[in-house]
C-alpha cells in the first residue's frame, strides 16, 4: 500500500445511493478519524527518541503510549451520549479544536509529565471525534448497503492512520525533531474543524438534552483509576500505588452500573445488553483491543530495542501491519453485506493469532524480515475486526443512540488496548536473561506473541459461541 493511498482514502467515492450531504459527511468523518489514529500511534516508532527528549524512564515510557488511551477510554461513552443529546456535529468539531490544543501541548512539552497530560487531553478530544463521527455516519446512511460502505470506509481509516502515524513521526524525527509531527497535526485539526462547519449538518436525538452527571463522574473516574492501576502494575501488583486505584476504580464502575440502572435518562441503556448483537459488539471490541491493538502497539519498540532497527524502519514494519488492515477494511465495503459481522470477527481473530505465531523467534533470529508475513496476516485480521465492529456499533443500537453505541463500542476497544499495552510491556520486560536488569528480552517478545495469539483465539471462540444466539444485524433508521 502506498502512502498516497492512505492519504486519499477519505475522499473515495460514497455509496451510489448517497446524497451530496452524505458524501461530505463521509469525507469529513474519515479525514478526522485518519488524524486521530495518526496521532494515536505517532509515538510508537519514536518512543526511544521521545523518551530521551523528555527524560522518561521505562515505567514512564508506558505512560507516553498509554496516556492517550486513558483519555479515550474514560470519555468515549460520555462523548457519544453528549453527541446524541447536544448535537453530533457540535461535539465532533469541539473534539477537533481540543485535539489541536493537546497536540500543541505535546509539541512544546518540556518534560514527561507535561507530555503525558497533553496526551490525555488528546485522548478526550479523540473520544469526541470517534464517537460523534461514527454517530454522524449512522445518521447519514440508512440502507444496509450504504451503512456497510460507510462503516467500512471509516474502519479503513483506522488502519490508514496506524500506518501513516508512525511513518510520519519517524520521518520528521529523522529530518528534525519528533515535535514537528504534533505541530503539523494541530494545524490540520484546526483546518478540518473549520471545514466541518461547511461540510456537516447537525444531527441529534429527538429528545430533551440531558447530562448524566453521576454517570459521567463514576464512569470517567472509575476507568481512569483502573487504567492507572494496570499501567503501574508492571512494577508490582501488591503495592499501595496499584491496589488503591484498582479497588477504587472497581467500586466506581460498580457505582456507575447502579446509577445507570436507576437513572431516568441514563448515559448507557443497560437494556441494550439484552441484545445479542450488542453483547457481541462489546465483547468483540474488548478482545480486539486486548489481542490486536495491545501487542501491535508495542511491537515497533520491541523491534527497535531487540534487533536494532531504526525508528524509520520500525515505522515501516508498523506500516506493513496497518497497511494490510487498511486494504482489508476498505474491501469490506463491497463484501460486508455478504457475510455476518460475527463471522468477520471470528475470522479476524483467527488471522491475528496465526500472524502472531508466524512472527515467533524474530528477535532470536535478529531478523526484521521474519516479521513481515506475520504482520500481513495479523493486519488482515485487524482489518476484518475493524470493519465488523464499526458495522455492529451502528446497527446494534436504536437510531437515536448511534453515537452512544459508537462510544460504548470504542470504550471497550480502548480499555482492552490499554490492558494489552500494559500487559505486553510487563511481559516483555519481565522475562530477562541472567545479568540483565532492565529493557526487553527475546523470550519476552515471544511470550507477548504467544499470549496475544491465545487471547485472539479466545476472542474467536467467544464470538462463535455468541453467534448461535445472535440474530442477523437489523438495519436501524
TrEMBL record:
Instruction: Identify one Pfam family in the record.
Output: MFS_1
Where found? Answer: Cell membrane
Q: Does the keyword Cell inner membrane apply?
A: no
Q: Say if the entry is tagged with keyword Ribonucleoprotein.
A: no
CDD domains in alphabetical order = MFS_MMR_MDR_like
- Mode of membrane association: Multi-pass membrane protein
Main subcellular localisation? membrane
Which keywords does the record carry? Membrane, Transmembrane, Transmembrane helix
What highest taxon heads this organism's lineage?
Answer: Bacteria
UniProt feature, compositional bias: Low complexity: 9-18
Residues crossing the lipid bilayer are: 25-43, 63-82, 94-118, 124-142, 154-174, 180-201, 213-232, 238-259, 280-299, 305-324, 345-363, 375-394, 414-435, 447-465
The Major facilitator superfamily (MFS) profile domain covers which part of the protein? 25-471
- Mind telling me which PROSITE patterns this protein's record contains? MFS
Which residues belong to the signal peptide in this entry? Answer: none
Chain positions covered by the region annotation Disordered: 1-20
Which InterPro entries does the UniProt entry name for this protein?
Answer: MFS, MFS_dom, MFS_trans_sf
Tell me the protein's name: MFS transporter
Amino acid at each position: 500500500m502506498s502512502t498516497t493511498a492512505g492519504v486519499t482514502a477519505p475522499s473515495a467515492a460514497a455509496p451510489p445511493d448517497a446524497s451530496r450531504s452524505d458524501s461530505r459527511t463521509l469525507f469529513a468523518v474519515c479525514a478526522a478519524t485518519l488524524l486521530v489514529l495518526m496521532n494515536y500511534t505517532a509515538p510508537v516508532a519514536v518512543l526511544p527518541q521521545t523518551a530521551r527528549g523528555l527524560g522518561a524512564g521505562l515505567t514512564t515510557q508506558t505512560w507516553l503510549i498509554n496516556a492517550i488511551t486513558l483519555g479515550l477510554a474514560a470519555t468515549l461513552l460520555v462523548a457519544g451520549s453528549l453527541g446524541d443529546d447536544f448535537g453530533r456535529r457540535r461535539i465532533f468539531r469541539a473534539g477537533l479544536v481540543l485535539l489541536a490544543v493537546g497536540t500543541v501541548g505535546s509539541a512544546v512539552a518540556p518534560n514527561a509529565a507535561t507530555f503525558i497530560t497533553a496526551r490525555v487531553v488528546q485522548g478526550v478530544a479523540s473520544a469526541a471525534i470517534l464517537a460523534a463521527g461514527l454517530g454522524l455516519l449512522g445518521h447519514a446512511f440508512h440502507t444496509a448497503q450504504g451503512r456497510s460502505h460507510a462503516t467500512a470506509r471509516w474502519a479503513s481509516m483506522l488502519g490508514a492512520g496506524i500506518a501513516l502515524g508512525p511513518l510520519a513521526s519517524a520521518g520528521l524525527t529523522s529530518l528534525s525533531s519528533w515535535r514537528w509531527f504534533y505541530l503539523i497535526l494541530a494545524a490540520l485539526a484546526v483546518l478540518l474543524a473549520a471545514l466541518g462547519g461547511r461540510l456537516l449538518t447537525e444531527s441529534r436525538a429527538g429528545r430533551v438534552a440531558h447530562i448524566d452527571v453521576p454517570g459521567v463522574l463514576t464512569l470517567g473516574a472509575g476507568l481512569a483509576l483502573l487504567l492507572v492501576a494496570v499501567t503501574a502494575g508492571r512494577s508490582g501488583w501488591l503495592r499501595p500505588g496499584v491496589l488503591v486505584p484498582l479497588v477504587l476504580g472497581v467500586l466506581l464502575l460498580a457505582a456507575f452500573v447502579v446509577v445507570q440502572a436507576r437513572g431516568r435518562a441514563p448515559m448507557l441503556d443497560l437494556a441494550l445488553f439484552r441484545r445479542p448483537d450488542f453483547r457481541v459488539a462489546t465483547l468483540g471490541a474488548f478482545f480486539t483491543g486486548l489481542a490486536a491493538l495491545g501487542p501491535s502497539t508495542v511491537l515497533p519498540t520491541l523491534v527497535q530495542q531487540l534487533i536494532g532497527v531504526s525508528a524509520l524502519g520500525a515505522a515501516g514494519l508498523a506500516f506493513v501491519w496497518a497497511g494490510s488492515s487498511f486494504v482489508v477494511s476498505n474491501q469490506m465495503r463491497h463484501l460486508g453485506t455478504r457475510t455476518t459481522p460475527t463471522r468477520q470477527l471470528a475470522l479476524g481473530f483467527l488471522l491475528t493469532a496465526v500472524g502472531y505465531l508466524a512472527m515467533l523467534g524474530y528477535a532470536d533470529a535478529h531478523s526484521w524480515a521474519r516479521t513481515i508475513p506475520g504482520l500481513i496476516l495479523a493486519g488482515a485480521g485487524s482489518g476484518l475486526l475493524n470493519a465488523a465492529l464499526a458495522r455492529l456499533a451502528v446497527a446494534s443500537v436504536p437510531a437515536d443512540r448511534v453515537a452512544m453505541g459508537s462510544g460504548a463500542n470504542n470504550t471497550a476497544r480502548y480499555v482492552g488496548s490499554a490492558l494489552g499495552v500494559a500487559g505486553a510491556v510487563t511481559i516483555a520486560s519481565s522475562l530477562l536473561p541472567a545479568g540483565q536488569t532492565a529493557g526487553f528480552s527475546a523470550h519476552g517478545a515471544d511470550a507477548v506473541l504467544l499470549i496475544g495469539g491465545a487471547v485472539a483465539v479466545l476472542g474467536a471462540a467467544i464470538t462463535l459461541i455468541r453467534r448461535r444466539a445472535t440474530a442477523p444485524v437489523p438495519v436501524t433508521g
